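Q: Can someone sanity-check these two? First one:
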Amino acid sequence: MRSAARWIDIGLVAPATFHATYAGLADHQVANAAPILLWGRTTEHICLGQHQNLMAELAQPLEVPVLQRPLGGGTVWVDEFQYCFVLIVPLELLPGRPQEWFEWGLAPMLATYRRFGMEVELHAQDVWLDGRKIGGSGAATIGNCAVLASSFLMHFPIAHFVQCIACPTEGFRNWMAEALSVAMTDWQSHQSVPDESVLVKVFWDSLQAGLKWDFIQSALSADEVLARDAVLPELAELDASNGKRLVPDGIKLNARTFLTEKHDGTNWVRVLTVDGKFSRIMLSRVLSAEQLEKLVLSSPTIEALQAELILMMPLGEAEYWAALIMNTAFISA
């Protein structure tokens, strides 16, 4: 059974206006309302997830505007080189479990990429192309609706992004830039960027085919404008004491890649993990490149690290550094 749906294009707007629009729309919808696809772009800003802490995540001070969205997920760079979309769907029209929302809601996005010849895959909440993340997503329940947001990433400015992130050392920042060049990609790295009208047509068709919706061009009603404007003051207030760092001692670069650094007095450890294994390790204690490589190749357990380190230093030191490495590394379950 097909459903009528609204396509609302708000063009290029300020960050707060964009985020307030989908939040206000979602909060204003009544049960059995038509689903909405909100389409638009926004000027550059850093966008935090709703549970993140401003002071813990970001460098201070920042010249780039910062906004905390009413959706989950981590720190993202958003600018006019992304085509953002938000699905605003009454809960009764959704798959039963929230874990299923991403597979359901992002399927038309995957179909769109494939129509352009890019064989993307869905990994949890992220879209991947050729082993790299090309898109993330966030979701929340607002009012009677589920809200699912993502974007078509035409260009990702790694250098700008890493300057915005709180980093314990410049070494950490440098590693982040290098790791992002492997963990992330964008549209222009694979083919020429299409005209917006061409992208919209393909995405529109993919949504209608995949979700069985029939779109009509729509706009915010007067009441929906008031609902949007009511949200704006909330978005303008950034509570620096709220939330926490999403990844303790570091940052998630994609679903498989984490960079962390922990300090213990003058001692420190920096670890890059990929797929739950060591990819790169550095210590403040001087070790040779060959010794560091042996640590990277070891199993990510304290016993395996101790077995390698005891060949490089006294037992007490080996136990200390093995524990500090394991306490630093983000090893997902």
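And here is the second, same format, sequence then tokens:
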Amino acid sequence: MQEQIRLALPSKGRMEEETLDFLAGCGLRVNKTNPRQYTATIPALPGVMVLFQRSRDIPVSVAAGDVDLGVTGYDTLAESSAQDSDSVIVIHEGLGYGECSLVMAVPEEWDDTQTVADLARRAAGGTLRVATKYSNLVSRFLAEAGVEKVRVVVADGALESAPTVGYADFIADITSSGTTLRENRLRPLDGGTILNSQAILIGNRAALVSRPAVLEATRQLLEFIEAHLRARGQYMIFANMRGSSVEDIAGRIFSQTDLGGLQGPTIAPMITREGSGAWWAINLVASARQLYDAVRQIRAIGGSGVVVTPVTYIFEELPERYQRLLVALNGKE
């Protein structure tokens, strides 16, 4: 019987949607037939069972060994007691979505409070209250910044209303664009960013060390994830060119600034109805930023029939983060 590997994913909100979209883009579609169900499968990884949990619970579950792997925000790991636990290891520190920042935000009318130092002076005149879901991170930040006489009020829900309702004087919360803060007449303090966060992949150290199936599933996850991230914004360009030899075609390609490809272009003889003739097929990879210039340069050196398609994966050798993981698990370079 195949060993089951347990992967925890966020169960609610934008983080759930972005995680499912990200995995689907990696070729790791999650088969969740009922939106109310809390288990699912990944057809590309038949030994993996998906469990949906609140993001804040995932680091705790991974630390306890209740699940083997988990995707959550770095902010939830940093806030959790699991951050200081040797049982949790960060496998991939930046999945490229769920970006946000944990910031101190004060009412706009506090004109004399623009920086954290200003906040400290304001608090010295009388105890202030800060509403947050991140009591550990906020308490640590305030202590390190030398801000005293601030009482942390732990709260859930829409914290932006706390100063208006009156149960806190200012807030410390996650923001992506700052729009919600502005709509509630709040503004971030200069120097008041506590941390920057995005989605991460974490694992239970003991499971990775003692269960080869968990390590192998992690390797497969990283293969698809890193190949997908490497391919983001990359395009494959195909074109036809006339030329006397492969050296002639290569010389013309390398005379242009945006036609380098990954290691270089692929050049192959092209067979037409009239025979091989003097036609060559070329293909190379270019970034979105280079794409227009690359197409223009191919035309300039005699290219025609240019076809462009997005790249889904770029697989290199063993994934970099898998190599790092092996080093971390073995405890040596």
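A (reply): Looked at the second one. The two ends are 35 Å apart (CA to CA). The mean pLDDT is 92.
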